[in-house]
């Protein structure tokens, strides 16, 4: 399948995507993941806890095929919004990471999610609700 050309990137001098607010990015990821039937979606608010990202969005797909489909939907939605996401782990499909700058999406198969358990590692203390418009 041939991919359409990417839109111009909306990246700041620091290298972070800037076209959307963090909550808009979380909403974009949530909508794309839910559209592909992603399960057990969790949003972790990391603001001030790490320089890696302000939010992690964690979602599970039932198989590597489904995790790739979820990741592709997130990347397509981000590119349609003018962002330039970075993608890792797509070939294996067990844990796919999509870096959108201030928001990082993690798409796991069930066994990989249980093994890495990012919710335990980063805590669910400040689980955010992404109800941005």
TrEMBL record:
Keyword set includes Cytoplasm: yes
Keyword Repressor carried by entry: yes
Entry GO MF terms: ribosomal large subunit binding
Annotated Pfam families: RsfS (PF02410)
A single GO cellular-component term on record: cytoplasm
GO biological process: cytosolic ribosome assembly; negative regulation of ribosome biogenesis; negative regulation of translation
Alphabetic keyword roster: Cytoplasm, Repressor, Translation regulation
HAMAP family: Iojap_RsfS (MF_01477)
Assembly with partners or alone: Interacts with ribosomal protein uL14 (rplN).
Known role: Functions as a ribosomal silencing factor. Interacts with ribosomal protein uL14 (rplN), blocking formation of intersubunit bridge B8. Prevents association of the 30S and 50S ribosomal subunits and the formation of functional ribosomes, thus repressing translation.
Family indicated by similarity: Belongs to the Iojap/RsfS family.
Name of protein: Ribosomal silencing factor RsfS
Species whose genome carries this gene: Vulcanimicrobium alpinum
Lineage: Bacteria, Bacillati, Vulcanimicrobiota, Vulcanimicrobiia, Vulcanimicrobiales
